[in-house]
Design brief:
Layout: H1 8-14, H2 16-29, H3 35-49, E1 53-57, H4 60-70, E2 78-82, H5 87-95, E3 99-103, H6 114-119, E4 125-131, H7 140-150, E5 153-157, E6 165-166, E7 169-170, E8 177-181, E9 195-199, H8 202-211, E10 216-218, E11 221-222, H9 233-244, H10 246-264, E12 279-280, E13 286-289, H11 293-302, H12 319-325, H13 331-339, E14 340-343, H14 351-364
Parallel strand pairs: 2-3, 2-4, 4-5, 5-8
Antiparallel strand pairs: 1-9, 6-7, 6-12, 8-9, 10-11, 13-14
Helix pairs in contact: 2-9, 3-9, 4-5, 4-8, 10-14, 11-14
The structure holds pyridoxal-5'-phosphate.
């Protein structure tokens, strides 16, 4: 492919001196597990998101399961979330013994709405899990006030939305806890797996530090049965470098998104993503919808342009989930699975590459 969806070596070449300096510093001067570098990263991450605590863990999925465990969400509880989502979100809910209650997304934002969440509340509902999918914030203030009124916990999944804001505030501080992923594909990325939980409560933060570390309260005392899921020290050192470049990266993503929005408006049957006036979109993914997805994807591939699918199988139709939740009919979500197509958009792309993709999309629909 001439224009890939991601170019990891290019990402690292751009910041190589800083990354090498960080790796040298850690390997020659820090503890191999946890240590100063993890603590510094946690502080910087918390400051960036304007919350008191960040706890580094092994992955975004671990961040979800550990956050739910720290908040005592488990067997007998329902967790409301949007059906149009990454399947791992539902696996995490099932993993802690709770039941995901799936609602259809808003037809424009493709996100969880406060109306859909409110309509799905039952006496067993314990939490609402809001995923800021593709990097666009949900209406976090409305969901937080719904949860406040109905005595539910609000959880945020910020895996795709580092750097996004809702009404001027960074995501991750609107609920009881927020889960982040630093998977290499995300806006804030490690060279491998990593994740974090953000929270406001000192007690929740203290529980999370025990739960990520085999349940150990101190060196020899185990207070909980828990996994070993710490953020790697070397990843923390790399993430500190990358956090310093996150804002610039988001600005580049935003300028690329504007190119697509200007050049693809009204082209064929394309439905373009929309940024809510009160939101700052982090543009993790630029996802269009079209009834001609397979043709467009082939046309672009034939011209050396890679595309992605987020996601081609609705989560409730995945065998692992269907086995647990039974057969659900969610027509809007199912139609999205057939229509979504992700165009290349990352900060390491050049503007000319984005323009070339737009030109080829227009050519496919016969608009030159
Ligand atoms: C990537 C992702 C996760 C899982 O993160 P991992 O670090 O891969 O475990 C969870 N939720 C969403 C929305 C994601 O995009």
């Amino acid at each position: 492919m001439d224009i890939k969806t991601k170019d990891y070596p290019k990402q690292y070449r751009q910041i190589w001196e800083e990354v090498r300096e960080a790796i040298d510093r850690v390997l020659l001067g820090d503890a191999p597990i946890l240590g100063a570098e993890v603590e510094r990263f946690e502080k910087e991450l918390a400051t960036f998101h304007e919350v008191p605590h960040a706890i580094g863990v092994g992955s975004g999925t671990a961040a979800l399961t550990l956050a739910m465990r720290a908040l005592d969400i488990g067997a007998g509880h329902e967790v409301i979330t949007c059906a149009h989502t990454f399947t791992g979100v539902l696996s995490a809910i099932l993993e802690v013994g709770a039941t995901p209650v799936l609602v259809e997304p808003d037809p424009v934002s493709l996100l969880l709405t406060v109306e859909a969440a409110a309509a799905a509340i039952t006496p067993r509902t314990r939490a609402v899990l809001a995923v800021h999918l593709y990097g666009h914030p949900v209406d976090a203030t409305a969901l937080a006030s719904l949860c406040g009124r109905r005595n539910l916990l609000l959880l945020e999944d910020v895996a795709q939305a580092h750097g996004a804001r809702w009404r001027g505030r960074p995501l991750g501080g609107f609920g009881a806890a927020a889960a982040m992923s630093f998977h290499p594909s995300k806006n804030l990325a490690a060279f491998g797996d990593g994740g974090a939980v953000l929270c406001r409560s000192d007690a929740t933060a203290a529980r999370l530090r025990v739960l990520r570390n085999l349940g150990k309260e101190d060196k020899h005392r185990f207070a909980a049965v828990a996994p070993n899921s710490k953020l790697d020290t070397l990843q923390a050192a790399i993430l500190r470098v990358r956090l310093r470049h996150l804002e610039d990266g988001i600005e580049r993503r935003r300028s690329h998104a504007r190119v697509y929005q200007e050049r693809l408006e009204g082209v064929g049957d394309l439905a373009l993503p929309v940024e809510h006036p009160e939101a700052r979109h982090a543009w993790h993914l630029f996802v269009v919808r079209t009834a001609h997805r397979e043709g467009l994807r082939k046309h672009l591939a034939g011209r050396g342009i890679g595309t992605g699918l987020h996601y081609p199988i609705a989560a409730h139709r995945q065998p692992a989930i269907a086995e647990r939740l039974g057969e659900l009919r969610l027509p809007r979500t199912e139609e999205l699975a057939d229509r979504v197509l992700t165009l290349p958009l990352s900060y390491e792309h050049e503007r000319e590459e984005i323009e070339r993709v737009a030109t080829e999309v227009r050519a496919f629909f016969g608009n030159r």
